[in-house]
C-alpha cells in the first residue's frame, strides 16, 4: 500500500465551515482544526457537504483551503471536496486553473440533478482523472444527488485509471459496498460516508470513514475506528454503541446544523449556517448536550 493510501486509512473529518454574522469565522475554524488534530484523527477533509461548500463562493473556497493548509502545517493529509458537480467541463476548467500546492487528494461527488446514466458517470470521472494533478476519491451520495454509482461502475472506474484511489460510500447499501470490496484493485480505499455504518463497513473489509461526528468527538470516534481496523471487535462495538444516539441526533435537523449545534456547546463555533439551511432548534441542541455530557465531551 502506498504512503498516501496508508495515510488516508482510518478517520477523516469533514470539517465544518464556521460562520459569524454571515462571514467565515476564521478564529473558530482554527480552533476546530486544532481540536480534531488533537483528537487523533488521521486526515482532514475541507469543503465537503459538511463544510457547506455549495453556499461558499469560489473566493471563499480558496481562502478556506489556504487557511486550512496554513493551520494544518502538513501535520495531516488534506483532502478537498470542491470538485464535485454536474458540469464536467466546468470542473475540468477549474482544475486547470487551480493551485493544488498543499492538497493531497480530491473528493469528487457524483453528478447531481441531471441524473446521468452509468456510462455518463464513468466518462465524467475519466475526464476528471485526466485533468487532475492529484488523486481522486469518488463520493457516492445518492440521497443528495439522485444518482447512484453502482458497484459495477465504481469498479470500472477504479480499474480504468490509477488516479482514482478510493470511494467515500454513502449509499448505506451494504451489499453494494461489499461488491466493491470484492472486486476492488489493490490499494483502492473504501471509506464510509456515514458514521453509523462505519463499523459494519470496516468489519466487511473497508478502510475507514470521512466523518461528521469527528468534528465534535474526534478521540472516541477515531479510537473506535482504530479498534475496528486492528480487529479489536469488542472494543470497537462498545465505543460504537456509546455514540449510537449521537450519530442520529446530529442529523435529525440536517447536516451540518446538528454538528454545528454540538460544536457551539463545546465553545468551538456558533451554530450559524447559511440559507437555505437553518440553525438547529434549542430543543434539538438540548438533546445533543445530554449525549455530549454522557460521552464526557463537554
Can you give a write-up of this model?
By secondary structure, this protein is α/β, with parallel strands linked by helices. It is built from 13 helices and 10 strands. The chain has a single domain, classed as TIM Barrel. Strand 9, helix 9 and strand 10 form a beta-alpha-beta unit. The relative contact order is 0.14.
Helix-strand makeup class: alpha/beta
Low-confidence blocks of residues? none
How far apart lie the N and C ends? 38 Å
Order of helical and strand elements: HEEEHEHEHEHEHHEHEHEHHHH
Architecture, according to CATH? Alpha-Beta Barrel
Walk me through the topology.
Blueprint: H1 3-7, E1 10-14, E2 19-20, E3 23-24, H2 26-38, E4 43-46, H3 58-72, E5 78-80, H4 88-97, E6 105-109, H5 118-131, E7 136-140, H6 142-145, H7 151-160, E8 164-169, H8 174-183, E9 189-192, H9 198-203, E10 208-211, H10 218-229, H11 233-249, H12 257-265, H13 282-294
Parallel strand pairs: 1-4, 1-10, 4-5, 5-6, 6-7, 7-8, 8-9, 9-10
Antiparallel strand pairs: 2-3
